[in-house]
């Protein structure tokens, strides 16, 4: 997994009906874009994450659409 500051991390829901959880990567702490990442949630809370196999990096920046 490779990410940059400003990318979004999408953690898919694990059960039927559970929504995906999206956070913004505010700092890459691992070498060459690898985890762990400091992330910020929509409510402003920050934490450090090492994402699992149920996560993907969305390289679109906040507000950007395809």
From TrEMBL:
It comes from the Bacteria. Residues 56-66 have a biased composition (Basic and acidic residues). This is DUF1918 domain-containing protein. InterPro entries: DUF1918. Residues 31-66 are annotated as: Disordered. Gene3D superfamilies: Domain of unknown function DUF1918 (2.30.30.440). Residues 1-57 form the DUF1918 domain. It comes from Streptomyces ehimensis. Signal peptide: none annotated.
């Amino acid at each position: 997994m490779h990410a940059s500051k400003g990318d979004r991390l999408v953690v898919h829901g694990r059960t039927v009906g559970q929504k995906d959880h999206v956070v913004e990567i505010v700092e890459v702490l691992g070498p060459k874009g690898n985890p762990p990442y400091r992330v910020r949630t929509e409510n402003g809370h920050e934490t450090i994450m090492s994402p699992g196999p149920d996560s993907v990096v969305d390289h679109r920046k906040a507000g950007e659409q395809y």
